Amino acid sequence: MSNNLPEPPLDAASYIHHHLEHWEWKTHLGTFNLDTLLVSWVIGITFLLIFRWVAKRATIETPGLLQNFVELLYEFVQKQVKETFHGRSRLIAPLALTIFVWVFLMNFVDLLPVDILPKTAGLLGASHFKAVPTTDPNLTLGMSLSVFFLILFYSISIKGVGGFLKELTCKPFGGYLFVVNLALKLIEELAKPLSLGLRLFGNLYAGELIFILIALLGYWQWFLGVPWAIFHILVITIQAFIFMMLTIVYLSLASEDH
Fold this sequence. Notes:
Blueprint lengths: L11 H9 L3 E4 L2 E4 H23 L8 H20 L7 H17 L7 H8 L13 H34 L7 H38 L5 H35 L3
Antiparallel strand pairs: 1-2
Helix pairs in contact: 2-4, 3-4, 4-8, 6-7, 6-8, 7-8
């Protein structure tokens, strides 16, 4: 027998739980968070297409507002790379620019009203929808692991396999204490992706939770939500900048041959 009665409104605990649940797709390969994949891919592809469009239509005579903004952003990132990265690589500057813009835009989703994307996704059949990709540790740790593999690649390509193994086993206490050296080096290297990913996840997750709590305050949310949103703009920008800068620093250290 069908029940056509409207669903009761969510209480505070159910409302919070509802906004922190992912839209999942379970397969024999594992569980995929469709909301994280959808939002991150849409944001990434969109900003790459916009930047490509600006680059193709760039002009010296009459640059538009969007071109000026992209050039300003490019010069800012390029300056950071020149001051921090001491090696030579054509990959670092584009990588740093991509990381900064992509992470910032994913963080920026946190400034949207908390019910907009979940309700829109609900119309498409999604039972839950966690809108901010960087509040998913799978994404933040996945990005940090990509940086970790680049660190290994640069270390081996610059120093060679022998030099890389020597660095793992002979520093800082010499070859006689290679076990201690290896243990310390492994801890140091593994701490890089963990700290990189967990820092971004923790800050954005806390910010998202505060927005959800503010949304429960009814009319008072306008008095608290606006100041917190203004402050959160600084948070999301700093977190994108930190992720970019630490990536540059780690790759610079991996490229040093001494």
